[in-house]
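Q: Structure tokens for this one, please.
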Amino acid sequence: MQNRTSLFLSILLGFNLFFSGCGSSKPQVPKKVDTPKWVKIQPNDTSAFTYGIGIDKTREDALKSALNDVISKLGIKVESSFTNKQIVDGYYSKSISTSDIKTDVAKIRITNYKIEKSHRISYREYAVLVKVDNKKFFNTLKQDIDQIKKDIETKLEESADSDAITRYNIKKKMSKECERLLSNSLVAYELNKSFNKNKYFNFVSDVKESYYSEANSLRFFISADKNSKDFAQVIKRQLIDNGFSVTNNKNLKAVIIKLNTTDNIASAQKIVTIKLNIKVTDEQKNVGSNTLVLKERLKKSKSSIYNTAAIHFNQDVAQEGIENILGIGINK
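A: Here is the predicted structure, written as tokens:
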């Protein structure tokens, strides 16, 4: 009996020691990691460096956001300067909007950068701080600008002896490309105030003037057979609405649009098929063509069938664009 009592007391004492030992140990609380100061307050830019911060789900996405932050800051400076015409005075064009400038600036890519710092904010977010060397960025951008200018010059020279439609299309495209050249030049000027911006602004101005001159000199003469008269009126209105000139004098130098139609009205079928053939020539050179098939219900008179077809043709032109209908790829 005494042995059993001693054994019981020993077991009881062991349990007390076990539970008292467990109770004395305190649970480990994860140490809180403070968010670095640079995440909350971005370092100030200097004449030598531009900083950008990005926060995203992955480190790679955070890096992209940080580089976009740098471009965004440059874009704001450029947009402000462009709006106030402080550095593009004399080169401002109503055809170029601040939204165009902002869009083109956003397309600029930065390759010369350094990841200054990175930090995992949580298991869901990373923060990255990048530092861009303005001098290296400027040198790379300057090379891109010169290459764009050279490409524009080459394409304009190659199109000099082409037909009027080809010249117009090339000059229109190069005029649009000049907007990218202007945007990049504005960014380059923000990075380096000694950059000769006027050299590129003058070039942009010359290319746009050449494009406007080409557009104003582009004339169309429409020739149509008896059944194509209504279709000719539709094409004429659409050309004029798009800013092109249409002449009634076939002796003037102009791009000639020839229309003729064929149909199966004589077969007396309930559904009439009309084929409108379009041929576009410039100095006897074929520059575009198209054949459209229009289906209409049989009516009492041939003229009413063609009038209805012309209404539907007008809807097609408005939807697809006059350049696609003529097969010449122009659109102001």
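A few notes: The first strand starts at residue 49 and ends at 56. DSSP finds ten helices and eight strands in the chain.
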